[in-house]
Amino acid sequence: MVPSVRNVILAALLTAPWGLAAAPAAAQAAQEDWMRCRGSDAAAAIEACTRIADTATLSAETRARALFNRAVAHGSRKDRDRQKADLDASIRLHPTASAYFGRGLWHRDVTRSAERQIADYDAALALDPQLVGALMNKATVLGDAGRTREAIALLDRAVAAEPANAGAWNNRGNLNGRVDRAAGQRDWNRAGKLDANLADLYKQGMRTVVISASAKFLDVPGDLQVAKAPDAPAPGPSRPETGAAAAPPPTTGNTAAPVAGTVVQRAGRRVALVIGNNDYAHIDRLERAVSDADAVARVLTAIGYDVRKGTNLDRSAINRLVAEFEAAIGNADVALIYYAGHGVSIDNAGYILPVDMPKVSAGAAGLIRDEAVSIDALIQRARRAGGAKVVAIIDACRENPFTVEGARGGAPTRGLGRIESQSGTFVLMSAGYGQLALDRLSKTDRDPNSIFTRRLIPLLQKPGLTHLQIAKQLQREVRDLAQSVKHVQQPAFYDEIAEDVVLN
Known about the structure:
Blueprint: E1 4-10, H1 24-37, H2 42-53, H3 60-76, H4 80-93, H5 97-109, H6 114-127, H7 132-144, H8 148-161, H9 166-179, H10 181-194, H11 196-203, E2 207-213, E3 264-266, E4 270-276, H12 289-302, E5 306-311, H13 315-329, E6 334-340, E7 343-346, E8 349-352, H14 365-371, E9 373-374, H15 375-384, E10 389-395, E11 425-429, H16 451-461, H17 467-483, E12 492-495, E13 500-502
């Protein structure tokens, strides 16, 4: 089955109304607040947006936009209750298509109610019938409900409104492909021509659903304007150009153009959990997992991560270390998990194996579930602890350790399989499903690290690379290194992070 990757891209900007210029000194101070209100520092944005929203002399529209921006800031901190309260307040004060659209997204993430999503997207479209983000996201809801024809009709409107919107063509291709494979392929071809990142994804045999997300109002509202303010826009309304490009992996190298509609975020506070297991008591021991963990921990510490590391851990020791990691996360921008050791898949769920893992045999799935540690559960715990974005790097797979020399893996199934990455998470595996991840190239290979981690370390050390650029570069380098010994290994990744996140 071809895996489906859901990626989220950012909407572009809405132009604020033009109004009378305020007194220069007061307007200058208000503009400074607006700069903070629209900024990426959530705490500063919330304070500044609050001051604007509480200023009764400002227009209802300006205060409503401040409330909307504050809702976005609360959402970035996963404060869903305050986010919803601000969206509601913004709509009550001065309804905008963006606020209804944002509330539809809130229902997508929180209540999962298709009915409520559709109601808010419809309200947004009543105010702006050509709001492409609302057309796209409503189509996704309808498509998931099996209402394919209605969804295609919405995407017909989306591509008519924005013919250069690769995400809209991509999504229509997914739906057209259900009823007419040739029509779907034509849409995918169009999307690939518009966006090289989508074309790259298609070459891997993968498909994506582009979900448009709301962005803050950025332009200075009219009643905060200073005459000839440097960043004042030309008068006139405009719609957000949502879905202009997909968030699958960008091409690597200095010649790659930035992806339209996405935001590259350099992470602030970062914490990491690093585990490496060699000394298994009942299954084949490994040679390089501990040195892999040691090397990764050194690099992460050097580039500013708060690292919790453990090696040769039994199940209880893993649980204690994970609890320390959870306590350290707080409001971290990035929570990174790295594991090197044996891993196993049961019913497409991935597990990492502690060193006291009993020897398994056919029909031992229940024992593995009881004694191993679920990768999905690790990711969920990091998200619940407050990690805004969770990056999991798993160098563990893909073969039975009892029968394959020099491999990392487990019984009963070859390959860790696809891990269902959750919203705000990115999972990078050292090999694709059904592939063997090599601990070493040969018995004479003296490198202290596995072939995956020896390529990962220099990429982590290189400033400015995004998580997706690292993943794509690793795919090429590990594939080529494995091919040098006539072996097939290519890392796989699953992405649910909207932005491109710089790890160093």
